Amino acid sequence: MSTEKTTIRIIQQQAEQNWQKLLAGPAMAQLPAHSHASIQHVIGLSNFVAETALTKPSLLSNIIDNHWHTDIDIATVCRAFKQRIDEVSSEDELFVTLRQFRAEQMAALAWRDLTQQQSIEHSLLQMSLLADTLILAAYDWLYAAHVKRYGTPQGPDGPQPMLILGMGKLGGKELNFSSDIDLIFSYPYKGETDHPRKPIENQQFFTKLAQKLIAALNKITPHGQVFRVDMRLRPFGESGPLVAHFGALEDYYQEQGRQWERYAMIKARVLNPASVYTQQLESILAPFIYRRYLDFTTIDAIRDMKRLINKELRRRRLSDNIKLGAGGIREIEFFAQSFQLIHGGREVTLQSKELRHVLNMLAELSLIEPDAIKQLLKDYYFLRKTEHTLQQFNDEQTQLLPEAEWPQAVVASVMGFADYNAFYAELARVMQRVHEQFNQLVAEPGDEQQEQDSLFSRCKDAWLLNMSADEFSDLFVRDLPADSVSQLYEQLSEFKQHLRRQRMGQKGEDTLSKLMPELVYFMLKQCPADITSILPRLFSVINAITGRTTYLDLLHENPDVLKQLIKLCSRSEWITTQIRNFPLLLDELLTPLYLQQQETDIEKVYEQYNDELRQALLRVEPDDIEQLMEQWRQFKLCQQLRIAASDVSGSLPIARVSDKLTALAEVLLNAVFHSAWQQVTEKFGEPQHLNAGETGFLIVGYGKLGGFELGYGSDLDLVFIHNAPADSNTRGAKSVSAQHFYIKLAQRIMHLLNTRTLSGQLFETDLRLRPSGNSGLLCCHIDGFTHYQQHEAWTWEHQALVRARSILGDDALKSEFNATRTSVLQRRRKPNELADDVVKMRLKMRDHLIDKHATGLDLKQCEGGITDIEFMVQYWVLGFASQYSELTRWPDNLRIIAAARDAGLLPADQAGRLQTAYLTLREHYHQLTLAGQKFAHSNEEVELVRRHVTEQWLQLFGEGH
User: How much is the pTM?
Assistant: First the structure.
């Protein structure tokens, strides 16, 4: 017997089995006799049609009478169905009517397909029209019911609809026979319905409507199911809202839309009738899908998706899957849509949902050879016809080739082959041709084998693949010591586990999968010996930005920025913390020249900072205080990073670092003062004792600020002074005493400096050095300040005055303050009493502040440390300024030591050693701050300078001190 006769016999046997079932049941009475032969033929090809005949004989009878022949006008049938839906009076009746129509039309469609009554192209269109009809009929009925109950969600262009996006093959009008449907719901505007008594929010209205529509289509009842509904393509997937308004949709696709969503959106079709609202939705989606230029991120994304498809093929070995297998339907769709993504922005004719049109346009635009397109279309429809036939056996969504004899015989017969082997051979040729076209799409750069052997490829495997410790060790055995490899494996594994617990969008995951191999690669290139100690710092930064894909993209798309980040984090824990806490600093790494500052004249530094701050504030409205505060903080963070980066690179010596940090603080303090002055005067008016251009106010800086020696994270020791007469009031409508005005001004300055915003504090401030400390007035009169310093202040307060200077204020007040400072410092004191006071205070301070349990060295408070030098300097000023007035000229330690040397208070060599010691200790202290550490490890250099300092201390104060 020939193979063709065998195929026919197998089909006839199945037909006979199904026919006997029909004969045994009550259905035969409803099936017209003239159709028995036709019925017997079709039920030999489809159990689905046989089941319909058995359980729904009236439907099958209707099909035979009206719907089985090729010239049926499906559009007319669908219009008639919509009229039938209008007569439905309940939700239950709606469910039944939808399912009956679906069953009737699907059986009729299968009948026409299996008996070769229509082309596969026509069948795909009919299937899509049927789906559109069922979806919209259910939607229209449910919308009317919801409006009746909740009111209408009105919009600027009439009642707002719920826009239904059909995705995938439904969107392309290429729906397969037993497909599920991917939908996305949206509505135009937020607001409320117009119900006269109980309006509800539009979001609530459309969510309820969406839930009902999904149930109407998806729910399985005794009458079956309309369609399986999949909503996972909506923004944020299953965790996102079921329906989103246009604004939310636009924000999502502009800010978080992923490449695969662009790919999916190519097929998105609005199912609702055309209206102003459908046009608005399409105008939102178009710029997301199609770019006006050929962007390489699109090409890279297509390459990545192509690699994933090939990887899945190798892993799952989908050889008998006509959709997902090599050369299957998916590869043709991917081929067409990839060209749409790449060229569709410039070639409007490619902006189509329908694959046939797109492929034909690729030929017309000479992007692909016409003959190749002709063959690809022929192969595509061969695969689609095969898919339909497979699904028409039992109305099941499957793309797997059958293993049993009967379905194999049906496929061979319907596809026009003598037997299954002949069909399979042709299918293999078709899929081979398709896969060859697919593999030519978007050529990979470089030689693949070379890439496989590269360090970067091994880094990719280390991050992307789940490996055992031994497999990981084999990757890097030539690059790192064994213990480092083991530690690196643990670190990467733990961080991957941590990231899995994070809520991160697909775009973030995709970017991380590219960024992390690059991070490991550059670290192996830049700092292999320290990779395991530095990697946790980098992980902390990456972890801080996982929810901010802009920063992930910045690092991935700019290798120089990533290298600079690695460099800075490897050299400074403090910089790492700054970037981790304030990721906006990553933008600074785009301009590395900023990060390599050279020594500059201090006056030019002030000028530069003032100019840059002025430009930064041009974008901020003067009365927008919150934004102003944020901009000041961002400016400080960015400038501070530039200084620190130059510091760790060695391009700025320690003295210049402190100069720049001090200048930065003064410029910001000046900006804060002027803003506070404007705010307080707007409320109370200016004090009446002032002349034009005066403020009657002075800010004095003590300590590191006063001595031009600020470090990273230093607080500001401030004292506020005014000159208002006791009877002075403000001129505003809400008049207060001038003294009260200046207290309010001081409070406002403190608020602007200390308040924590998203970018942290501007500066932490300390006002305890004001007269009477914490119990004194926040802002004191200049006469009160002078009286306190001359008659009430302790020796340690006069020590503090050594490093005090005017930061900003009226010239007259500056002169009065300077006169007071000079007068107090130049007072004649008894050297022995002064020495006792200074030494006692130093010992008390050391006993109180030094950590006796610390394992390291406190460079500031230890014996021979920074504070010892400061106290000696203060002693020379307080003890000898009455004789040598030059000692009071400067507030910084280096120049005071030079003045003491010039006055003959210590030999030049000792002065030089003391200055060197001070700079060395400050440099080490600075580096500890940058490294995120508090205590130093003693070394030969540190011990040498400490000995010099201690020797000078003993020489100055004697052995007993």
Answer: 0.56
